[in-house]
Write a structure and sequence with these properties.
21 strands, 6-stranded mixed β-sheet, 5-stranded antiparallel β-sheet, Rossmann fold, Phenylalanyl-tRNA Synthetase, Chain B, domain 3, 439 residues, alpha+beta, globular, 3 domains, Uridine Diphospho-n-acetylenolpyruvylglucosamine Reductase, domain 3
């Protein structure tokens, strides 16, 4: 394994921190070892980010062994344990929490890269599952080797290697690792592909992972070109309030129409886009082409797409929503029709903007509806009931149940978007590394 070739896609300078996710499995421990080798010829600091999902009794012992291995090799160890989960799909929720933690560590050390040990077998599994489920052109490509995030990159150096090669590397270098027993369970879809489909494909062609990588690269290249063309038209057919102008949309090439429609929906569904498939897109296209002036279709999660003459809108049914709890990512389209998003800069300091320090709050941030007894420590001192804040601002009763409340993971209310800021709000002269804007 040529270490320099693995990392020739990253650009670093002397003294840089490299953050890598490590589960203590063979893949991530192989990553750990290659980074130790890479460090021998480069002036870098390594940061190991480890998440305990709290699902296996062996996890505590694995955490201790990994922490000891870090100390032995002069690697910074960062750790979190997931104490509770919501009602979402476990794997999706765990992934979101994990990557929010990784991003927090990346920003803590002002790192340029987050490295993960995803390999060629992972890529094959992802592509096959998405083909079976149905996806977008970009989705069928699986995942990329290098992905630009908000202020940093995710880098996957093992994308051209197999699981077997990484395990062999660990054995040859006597690197400790643990096997997650849940990986053998056939309950999980990915495990079934791993145990039943991949062995067949590898028997047909031992280098099949390289063919999948070429397939992925080709789709990514095609998607990048199509995205550029779609974006040119997207701005023309979608208004500022996320409304599609039908006559303009129908003048666009039919292939690009589908891409624009996917983009239109993805802005609303966020991480739940997995719920949408070709059947739903077909229903929306029928709605658009219908001769009826006013009509609608229902989508998963109580989402309604409505046609009114020349306009198409998408929103969640306010009648069916009594409460919600959403983990705040880069941008969230809220059930009340507003957006809450993270931004890099704004000169504004009104009640639609809050500037926070990650050192004073517990990430990730959550957007939820009000609860009985909610109280916020307000900016300037003192505490105030959320109910009284609504009354002071003359918010109608019909709007209060859906009004967003931003809390941290320790249940501190940090922001009532558009109405009031908490004691956690920072002035321009104070340290802050998170900016939220409500619009």
């Amino acid at each position: 394994m040529n270490i320099d070739n693995l990392y020739n896609d990253i650009k670093i300078k002397s003294g840089d921190f490299l953050v890598f996710g490590c589960s203590y499995g063979p893949d991530s421990m192989a990553l750990f070892k290659t980074l130790l080798e890479y460090r021998k010829n480069h002036d870098i600091r390594l940061v190991c980010a480890h998440v305990n999902h709290g699902k296996r009794k062996e996890s505590e012992k694995e955490k201790e062994e990994l922490e000891e291995f870090c100390a032995k090799n002069n690697v910074i160890f960062e750790y979190m344990k997931i104490e509770r989960y919501g009602d979402d799909n476990f794997h999706n929720e765990a992934r979101n929490i994990r990557y929010d933690f990784f991003e927090q560590i990346v920003k803590k050390y002002n790192a340029k890269y987050l490295l993960t040990a995803h390999h060629g077998d992972d890529l094959m599994e992802t592509i096959l599952m998405r083909i079976a489920r149905g996806s977008t052109l970009e989705g069928y490509a699986g995942f990329k080797k290098l992905v630009k995030m908000n202020g940093y990159y995710i880098f996957r150096p093992f994308i051209s290697l197999t699981k077997e090669e990484l395990v062999d590397y660990c054995h040859k270098n006597k690197i400790p690792y643990a096997i997650d027993s849940s990986n053998n369970s056939s309950v999980y879809t990915r495990n079934r592909y791993r145990k039943n489909v991949l062995p067949f494909l590898k028997k047909e062609d031992k280098n099949i992972h390289q063919k999948f990588l070429k397939f992925s690269s080709l789709l990514i290249e095609a998607n990048n070109f199509i995205e550029k063309e779609a974006c040119k038209n997207f701005k023309d057919v979608i208004s500022d309030n996320n409304t599609l102008v039908i006559d303009k949309f129908l003048n666009v090439d039919s292939f690009l129409q589908k891409i624009i429609l996917e983009k239109f929906i993805s802005n609303f569904y966020q991480d739940d886009l997995i719920l949408i498939n070709d059947k739903h897109l077909t229903l929306i296209m029928k709605l658009i082409n219908s001769k009826k002036s006013n009509s609608r279709v229902n989508l998963p999660n109580d989402v309604i797409v409505s046609k009114s003459y020349n306009l198409l809108t998408i929103k969640r049914s306010p009648i069916l929503i009594s409460n919600y709890e959403i983990e705040l990512s880069e941008e969230v389209l809220l059930p009340n029709g507003h957006k809450l998003k993270k931004i890099d800069y704004t000169p504004l300091h009104n009640n639609s903007v809050i500037k926070l320090s990650s050192k004073e709050i517990v990430l990730p941030l959550i957007v939820r509806t009000r609860k009985v007894g909610d109280v916020m420590a307000i900016k300037g001192g003192g505490h105030k009931k959320i109910k009284d804040i609504f009354i002071d601002n003359k918010i109608p009763l019909t709007e209060r149940d859906l009004w967003p409340i931003v809390v941290d993971s320790a249940s501190h209310i940090v922001f009532i978007p558009g109405l009031k800021k908490s004691k956690f709000d920072k002035t321009n002269n104070e340290f802050y590394d998170i900016i939220l804007k409500y619009e």
